[in-house]
Amino acid sequence: QVQFVESGGGWVQPGGSLRLTCVTSGFTFGHYEMNWYRQAPGQERELVARIAPSGVARFFADSVKGRFTISRDNTKSTVYLQMTSLKSEDTAVYYCRTANYWGQGTQVTVSS
Fold first, then answer.
1. For residue 31, what is the DSSP state?
2. What does the alpha-carbon distance between residue 111 and residue 88 come to, in Å, rounded to a whole number?
């Protein structure tokens, strides 16, 4: 049974930082690319960052380039999203995903 457990969301002031964690189980983590998506109220879910199975190849949405970093630890079946210089427009529910599997989401709220 594939499981994703996301954590690390919360409230932060503009300019602050958060690190999201997605611990997975039930599949061969090291064989799959991992993705972070987000969905803000009233908006479609969008891809934020992607990391290849080896961790070498990475993709970032233009809106987060230079501020967010994605990483993974294949020994722990875990993927991370380090978010810095957060803006109010980063407020959303953040999800990790691989193939057809999604986590339950973690809320990130950026406001003063």
1. G
2. 6
